[in-house]
Amino acid sequence: MKILVTGTDGHLGCLLAPTLAAEGHEVVGLDTGFYNFGWLYNGVSMTPRTIKKDMRELTVEDCEGFDAVVAMAELSNDPTGDLVGPITYDINHKGSVHVAQMAKQAGVERFVYMSSCSAYGVAEGVADETSEVNPQTAYAKCKVLTEKDLWTMADDGFHPTALRNSTAYGASPRQRFDIVLNNLSGLAWTTGKIAMTSDGTPWRPMVHGLDIAKAIRAVLGASVEEVHSEVFNVGSNDQNYTVRQIAETVAQEFTGCELTFGEPSADNRSYRVNFDKITDTLGYSTDWDLAAGAKQLHEVFEAIQLTPEIFNGRGHTRLKQIEYLLQTQQVTPELFWTKKEF
C-alpha cells in the first residue's frame, strides 16, 4: 500500500512512518516543518521522503497514486490553540477537511484521521464511541467538527475512519515535553521534584505513541467494511488513570523525586474511556503501560544526559516554538511561512 502521512515530522508521525515501512508499505510524508528544530535523539530506523508543504496548500496532484492518507498534521495542544485563536479552526478543522477533500478527489480510498478522546471533555461514567461528545477547548471542538464533515464525504469510493486517541506518552526523537507523562518525567529528571499545582483528581486515558501507530496499522489492515465511517477509541481499559496516579507512577520510576500536590483545579475536564470496540472489531491491544513508558523515558534521559535547557527549550514544547516563529516573523499571523530570503 502506498500511504501519504501528514505530520511525519511530529511526535507521533516520526514514530509511525518506520512501522509502516517495516510492514512493506511505501510511505511518503508531508510536513510544513514547524518543529524541525526539535530532534532529541536518533531513535528511528528511517525517515520517509517528506514533502515540505502546509497541509492547507495540499493539491489533488499531491495525493494522486496513494491508496491511503493518514492525517496527523494539526496544531497540537490547548495553549497553542489559545495563542493563535481562530487560526486553530483554519488549520485543525478546515485544513484537515481540505486534506480529505483533496484525497477524495484524487481517488484515495482510505482516510485515517487522528481525532482525540478529548472530544468527551467532561464525561459521566465511562465514555464509549456512542457517548455524547462534550469538547471543552478549541482543539477538541475542531476534532468533533472534522469528524462530522468526514462522514458527509464518505461513499463507496472513500472510506474515512476517525481514531480518538487517548493522551499520548512515551519517547520519540521528535519529543514533546508538553504532554502530561513526558512533562512530569522531565521535571523529575531535571529538578528532582514534581510539584503538582492541582490535586490530581481528574481522569485521563493514556496510550503510548507506538500503540497509536499500532492502531493506525490495524485500521489500514482491516477491510473497508470494518472501518468505513467508524470511530474507534484508541487505548486500553486498564489505562484510565487519574492525574495523581500518573504523577505517582513517574515518582516510582524516578526514585528520590519529591512529589507534592496542590488544590482542586478550575479545569473541569475529566473522562474515562471504554476501548472494547477497537479490541473486538480489529483485534487491537496495547503493548505498553504507563510504568513502561516512564521507564523508557528515564532510559532516554540517562543516555542523552537530558539538560534543563533542552527540557525547557522551544524544541520540544509546541507553544514555545510557535511563539518563537511568530516573534521572529518567520511565519505570518496565519502561520504560513513568510519565505524571507536572507
Average of per-residue pLDDT values: 95
Spans of at least 5 consecutive residues with low confidence:
none
Q: Order of SSEs, N→C? A: EHEEHEHHEEHEEHEEHHEEHEEHHHH
Which percent range describes the beta-strand content?
15-25%
Q: Structural class of the helix and strand makeup?
A: alpha/beta
Radius of gyration: 19 Å
Total DSSP helices: 13
The shape is: globular
N-to-C span: 41 Å
Largest sheet: 7 strands, parallel
Please report the total strand number as a whole number.
Answer: 14
Strands ordered across the widest β-sheet: 3-2-1-4-5-7-11
Helix content: 25-40%
Could you give a quick summary of the protein structure above?
The protein has 342 residues and is α/β, with parallel strands linked by helices. It has helices at 13-22, 60-63, 78-84, 87-105, 138-153, 180-191, 209-221, 224-227, 243-253, 276-282, 290-304, 308-312, 318-327; strands at 2-6, 26-31, 49-52, 68-71, 110-116, 122-127, 159-165, 167-169, 193-195, 203-208, 230-234, 240-242, 258-260, 270-273.
Structural description of this entry:
The chain has 13 helices and 14 strands. It has helices spanning 13-22, 60-63, 78-84, 87-105, 138-153, 180-191, 209-221, 224-227, 243-253, 276-282, 290-304, 308-312, 318-327, and strands at residues 2-6, 26-31, 49-52, 68-71, 110-116, 122-127, 159-165, 167-169, 193-195, 203-208, 230-234, 240-242, 258-260, 270-273. The strands form four sheets. A seven-stranded parallel sheet has the order 3-2-1-4-5-7-11, sandwiched between helices. The chain has a three-stranded mixed sheet with strand order 8-10-12. Strands 6-14 form a two-stranded parallel sheet. Helix 1 packs across helix 7 (209-221) and helix 6 runs parallel beside helix 9 (243-253). The longest helix is centred in the first third of the chain and has 19 residues, at 87-105.
